[in-house]
Structure prediction request, 617 residues.
Amino acid sequence: MSSRSKKTGSRFYELYCIGCGRRVREDESTTRCPTCRSPLDVRYDYDYIRSRLNRYSLRNSPIKAMKYLDFSPIENLNLVISLDEGGTPLYRCRKLEEAAGYSRLYIKNEGANPTGVFKDRGTMVELSKMKERGAKAVCVASTGNMAASVAAYASIAMIPCYVLVPEGTAIGKMAQALSYGARLLQVRGTYNDVFRLTEEMSERYHFTLAGDYAFRAEGQKTQAFEIIEQLDWRVPAVVIVPMGFGTNIAAIWKGFKEFYDLGLTDRLPRLIGVQPEGCNPIVSGFNRGEEKIIPVERPNTICSALAAGDPLDGVKALRAIRESGGCALTVSDTEILEAQQQLARLESIFVEPAGALPIAALRQLLTTARVRADEVVVCLATGNGLKDPRSALRVLPSPAAIEPSIQEVDKFLKLKLYEIRAAGAKNGDRNLFTEVPSKGALSDLVNKEFGIHLTSEYAQRVLRLVEDFVNKGKQVTKADLQYILETTLKSASGEGVLKVEDFQVTTTLHGHAQAKVWVRFEGEQLESSGSGVGPVDAVINALKAAANSRGRLFFELIDYQVEINSPGTDASVETTLVLKDAQDNRIVTTGTSPDIIVASVQAFVDGYNLLWSRQQS
Prediction:
């Protein structure tokens, strides 16, 4: 069957404005009301749907989003664009139940969708409708997940896809969109800027606008249908949903209501919406008892997928939460990262930060009695953790690199190098000291904060780095000490053949940077100079020149990366260098300091000494 229109030729659905109530034709708009600019919604002739519904097939066919097309506005089924989305698992989380104090807790893992995110359900409907309407090109504003999803389906539909994202969007999401053939543009601004610019782009160039609009919700509501089926056609008491744009929680509520109104279920759940503290306009509106959203001008959260300061469907979300008798709350970035790791370690489900919000909210909901321990609770995990792996690495150990000997393995196990990053993530901005402590006091502090017993040699080396931080006027935070410990414990033992005693750098706005270094090479004092495009390059070239003067330059620098561990110009940095010698031995080394040049020198010297020792063996 290619057409689903009524025999009279009229449609079985219509678009209407949630603000002024106006009916809107599809040739007028499928995004916003032409009169008041409010969001649109889809309204069905449910008597028509009821008359055509095959209840036996609905209850017995395999669970996939495509099986619910009777509840979608797609008219020409021959033009459906699908990647076999939906059918995502609903896990009973017994270990998490015990840890969180619940008796029946489930995770709906939407990261199992084709592009790793719940948005694929909505994109299936949205792109199918675009195909029906003969779209020539599609453009979409995104914080990353929408970009990848729309690009994937546009590729299958053979429709050119233009994607605009805020500058700095998670690289995993941009890599997906680019791989699917999207023409991607980063915008120096917030998502609000991106959203506005994409709408202008659509109007100017007559591209079809994709995003969190009316048709998308008609695909995303299938999450509710599947939850009901997977619970053996029973409705949970509570569903906890991360909120960014508000579309998803409103869509899920619509799905639960449709099954209820059609007599397929006999109850409705309470919906609980969760947002990060750094971007919580919907929660703020709910808690103030308002019917409108006051935008957040500058979202600041680790959950890039939820950084929508002025969510288009915020009003829909507020209505869904209130109609369901639910509530809304916020959680901190620290709680989100902890929840992400808890879910991964207890249940082996790896989600992006946005997907961990429901887990982060569990304790707060229980202690405030907004959810009872004996209720059936479903948490929606919206996206796969590989969407934004850099966020997870903030609380995961920086993997140690060792020489191929069992003694190095002994060091790894004895010093618990695998636990340092996670320990440092908790209260990482807390200041530990502003003056250099004694070696004994430092060892005691490391044991208390990180559970590590330092040997005398390692304590001395950690102390030297701490002295460098303090001498540069840097207050040493817990996160700083974490970096220092990781750098020290991963570096080579002993003094090594090369030691830098001092360096000096001069640079100008237009000319090359110039550097001098004073080093001790095999006990001999040397002075050398070098120039480069910047101060780090100049110092590294000066160090290379020192080694070359003694015929000991036997490697090349093949990679260089810098990671900043906190905001501010006095933040500590961690530099990573990859060195390779003539025998293709590769060494990865790190350095840490408030000074990027010092950190780079540390990494270079450690790498040189490691390669030197390997040459001698």
About this structure: The mean pLDDT is 89. The chain is about 40% helix and 20% strand. Residues 596-616 form the longest helix (21 residues).
